[in-house]
């Protein structure tokens, strides 16, 4: 605690008791703590001011969205919004009437980049705000890069869950010891005290499918958790470009975030590693940065939400027939394209989308070609090489890409095919094989929905 007494020569009055006050922290714009409400007291009061100290060690948490989960803008000087998801309605009206040519021109990896100007939730769900001072502002932590209607509320609740327990404990402590008379506290209804978000989960079982081996949050784990600060950052990336390029940017971003808390914000404590939380394709970006680019020594652990670890047959279906009905209220169909004619020209130029196709190690066969007589059904791939049997097939009707779907002129169609095969042969194939051989971060956790 901090003691502040009046050093004047006035003598203490006989019989006056000690006066103790408790003070909550406040943070300046650089993340430093102070206790500004302490008042000088006459020395006769034998006053004691106790400053309640918050955690000061920081472990940054970086969230990586999935495909379509980052706002994009034009690379032109006008910085035109290309893909902005502040609300579902705005997305629908912007995209539902666009044809294949318009989508192809707008959603091009070479002419788009990350746009962090999206709407950010302002509501604070914890006793002390995370939007500036305690942490850098949400905007500077790149929250505006994430799709608002998909991730806005999630980011807010996620950040609150990482802060609520120690903050609630501080407030409870100050309220509990505000009174000089301990007997007074016994009369205060203990039910009025708030309980932190994770405190409610201690020793609680959720009766999951694996309930015999279900682990529970222990009091010791919660106490350890409350000793750290977890600022949530967003790594937005261009979900059209090669995921390898995005992983290289993530590598730089991890270093930038660690440097921020070492040198500029807070006390520079515990700044060695980050925790990464991913959604969908963001997991592939994180795995590549960690295991291929060597960033695993700067990552404490990775939590993957629904990672398409070895790709997904849904990517093939999307390319062939469009994305109608996918996403919340069919959003993917409205934006990327509801039909193959609308969507195929976009995906054929987007390395990241092609990298979502089933990898060579994906369990084969994953494609069934139904024929009139069932005994003649075709199951692909046969040789565990989807490139030769499916992706680079030019004539077979089950081929992945139809180079003339929009442009019937042979010279244009041939150029389309050449560009597509170059993408498939180099960035797509190399990315898949690199990930397959790279393994996983030793502290990797995953979760999926039941359906």
UniProtKB/TrEMBL annotation:
SUPFAM superfamilies: alpha/beta-Hydrolases. Residues 247-317 form the GPI inositol-deacylase PGAP1-like alpha/beta domain. One of its GO terms (molecular function) is hydrolase activity, acting on ester bonds. It comes from the Bacteria. InterPro entries: AB_hydrolase_fold, PGAP1-ab_dom-like. Coiled coil: none annotated. This is GPI inositol-deacylase PGAP1-like alpha/beta domain-containing protein. The lineage of its organism: Bacteria, Pseudomonadati, Pseudomonadota, Gammaproteobacteria, Enterobacterales.
């Amino acid at each position: 605690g901090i003691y502040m007494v009046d050093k004047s020569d006035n003598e203490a009055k006989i019989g006056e008791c000690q006066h103790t006050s408790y003070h909550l922290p406040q943070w300046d714009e650089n993340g430093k703590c102070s206790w500004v409400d302490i008042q000088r007291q006459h020395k006769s009061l034998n006053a004691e001011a106790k400053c309640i100290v918050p955690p000061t060690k920081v472990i940054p948490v970086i969230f990586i969205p999935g495909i379509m989960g980052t706002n994009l803008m034009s690379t032109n000087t006008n910085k035109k919004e290309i893909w902005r998801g502040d609300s579902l309605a705005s997305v629908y009206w912007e995209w539902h009437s666009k044809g294949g040519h318009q989508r192809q021109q707008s959603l091009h990896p070479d002419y788009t980049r990350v746009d962090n100007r999206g709407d950010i939730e302002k509501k604070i769900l914890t006793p002390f705000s995370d939007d500036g001072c305690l942490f850098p502002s949400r905007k500077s932590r790149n929250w505006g890069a994430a799709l608002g209607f998909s991730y806005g509320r999630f980011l807010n609740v996620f950040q609150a869950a990482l802060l609520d327990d120690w903050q609630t404990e501080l407030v409870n402590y100050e309220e509990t010891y505000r009174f000089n008379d301990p007997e007074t506290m016994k009369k205060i209804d203990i039910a009025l005290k708030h309980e932190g978000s994770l405190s409610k989960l201690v020793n609680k079982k959720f009766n999951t499918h694996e309930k015999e081996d279900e682990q529970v949050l222990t009091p010791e784990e919660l106490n350890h958790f409350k000793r750290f600060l977890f600022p949530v950052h967003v790594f937005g990336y261009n979900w059209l470009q090669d995921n390898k390029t995005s992983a290289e940017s993530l590598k730089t971003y991890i270093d930038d975030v660690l440097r921020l808390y070492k040198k500029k914000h807070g006390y520079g404590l515990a700044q060695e590693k980050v925790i990464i939380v991913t959604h969908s394709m963001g997991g592939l970006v994180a795995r590549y940065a960690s295991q291929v680019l060597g960033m695993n020594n700067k990552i404490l652990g990775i939590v993957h939400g629904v990672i398409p670890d070895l790709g997904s047959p849904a990517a093939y279906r999307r390319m062939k027939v469009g994305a109608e009905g996918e996403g919340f209220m069919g959003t993917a169909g409205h934006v990327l394209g509801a039909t193959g004619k609308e969507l195929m020209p976009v995906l054929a130029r987007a390395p990241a989308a092609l990298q979502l196709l089933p990898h060579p190690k994906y369990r084969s066969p994953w494609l069934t070609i139904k024929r009139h007589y069932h005994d003649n059904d075709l199951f692909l791939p046969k040789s565990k090489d989807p490139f030769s049997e499916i992706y680079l097939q030019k004539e077979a009707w089950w081929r992945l890409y139809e180079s003339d779907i929009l442009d019937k002129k042979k010279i244009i169609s041939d150029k389309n095919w050449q560009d597509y095969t170059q993408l498939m042969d180099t960035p797509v194939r190399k990315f898949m094989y690199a990930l397959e051989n790279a393994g996983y971060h030793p502290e990797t956790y995953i979760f999926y929905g039941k359906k």
